[in-house]
Amino acid sequence: MQYVWAFVVGGAICVVGQLLLDVAKLTPAHTMSALVVAGAVLDGLGLYEPLIKFAGAGATVPITSFGNSLVHGAIREIETNGWVGIITGIFEVTSAGISAAIIFSFLAALVCRPRG
């Protein structure tokens, strides 16, 4: 049943993104930004963590999880390190994912030949 809920929640997040593209006529960049901000706001309100516990990968894979990670890291670090923790918490939590994306993109560029 966990797979079903992950599929439903992840799909619902993607449907919201698609509606922003099609109905609201937002650009892909605006849609992505809106989803990141939505994830950040939901985490700030304490609603994203219960969603992650309920849906698992359905809530952690979409771009909304990046906003959640930014706010979650900042809140955790501000409690321990004060106001400086806002910046360090953001970088600490998200650096592994960003580094992995850069490394795997570079490796893919080495393996694949672009067609021009």
Automatic annotation (TrEMBL):
Q: Which residues cross the membrane?
A: 6-24, 31-48, 83-112
Q: Which InterPro entries match?
A: Spore_V_AE, SpoVA
Q: Does the keyword Translocase apply?
A: no
Quote any Pfam family the record assigns. SpoVAC_SpoVAEB
Q: Record's superkingdom? A: Bacteria
Record keywords, A-Z: Membrane, Transmembrane, Transmembrane helix
PANTHER family in the record: STAGE V SPORULATION PROTEIN AC-RELATED (PTHR38450), STAGE V SPORULATION PROTEIN AEB (PTHR38450:SF2)
Q: What is this protein called?
A: Stage V sporulation protein AE
Source organism: Paenibacillus residui
